[in-house]
Amino acid sequence: MKRRVFFVSDRTGITVETLGQSLLTQFPETDFVSRTLPFLTNQLAAQSAADIIRLAREEDGIPPLVFSTLTDPVTQHIIAESNEHVFDLFGTFIEPLEEALGQESSHTAGRMHGIGDAMAYEKRLSALNFSLNHDDGLSTRTLHDADVVLIGVSRCGKTPTCLYLAMHYSLKAGNYPLTDDDFGQNRLPDVLKGSRHKLYGLTIVPEQLSRIRHERRPQGNYSTIAQCRSEIAKAEAMFRTENIEYLDTTTVSIEEIAATIVRDKRFR
Predict the structure, then answer these.
(1) Dihedral of the alpha carbons of 126, 132, 135, 141, in degrees to the nearest 10
(2) Neighbour-count burial of 91, counting CB atoms closer than 10 A to its CB (0-12 exposed, 13-18 middle, 19+ buried)
(3) What is the CATH topology of the domain spanning 118-264?
(4) Which among 209, 211, 202, 210 is positioned nearest to 256, based on CA atoms?
């Protein structure tokens, strides 16, 4: 069964989409078709979004689900009038929080994803630039400046995890791909020794790795199941020998991988 879903926000929509999608995962039998309507900062923008929501109902013959983190009462009312299934994710908690804290909220839009803290924002940008410049073994001479260095065979999830760690945790995350040349040494590669205490390993089941690699480079030995099994076995043996914490990423999302690394490395 398909059901349309709208995420409405007066800023980027990141918060409402994250919260809404988390709730929707509890209903796996429904195929949700999602659309984010951000920057509803005035009545005109809110009315335009309301028209889109009404049109969706007319086309589908069933009301869509609308998740909202709007803070302005006027735009909230416009969206609420457009559809009977509007879930106010901020309103659910703001009033109880006001009562518990004995004070009114600011009702200010975008405080979470705006540049409210310039230093924190600069730190996040710096971390992102570091991760981009130290991806896939680049700039190994300054790899020791990283907060964490992910190692593992090619295509096991290192790059997206590094970018997520930079964007969401402001961590300088570099990564280094382990290859047959590294395995031939029977020891930790020299370029990683200066970052020994910052290393964290990622692994994956050979069958999944083979499928991922085949999509990128179907020809040659790179994506064969035999090659994948060999590389993974040697990588995991290195992790165990060098006493490096590692995680199997086969069925784990990027968000969960990052959160596990943050926990294991005690960044928070």
Answers:
(1) -50
(2) middle
(3) Rossmann fold (3.40.50)
(4) 202
Tokens of 175: 């990564």
pLDDT in tens, 186-223: 789 999 999 999 999 999 999 999 999 999 898 899 99
The helix or strand, by DSSP H or E, that contains position 15, with its residue range, turns out to be: helix 14-24
Residue 71: half-sphere exposure toward Cβ, Cα within 13 Å:
16
Is the pLDDT score of 117 beyond 90? no
Helix (H) or strand (E) holding 3: strand 2-8
185: pLDDT confidence band, cut at 50, 70 and 90? confident
What is the full DSSP assignment across 170-237?
Answer: ---EEEEEE-HHHHTTTS--GGGGGGGGGEEEEE--HHHHHHHHHHH--SSSTT-HHHHHHHHHHHHH
Structure tokens at 51: 């028209």
Domains 2-101 and 118-264 share a fold: yes
The domain ranges of the chain are 2-101, 118-264
**What distance in Å separates the CA atoms of residue 258 and residue 6, rounded to the nearest whole number?**
27
CATH no. of 2-101: 3.40.50
Could you tell me the two tokens for 54? 């009404």
Task: Tell me the C-alpha distance between 147 and 165, whole Å.
Answer: 10
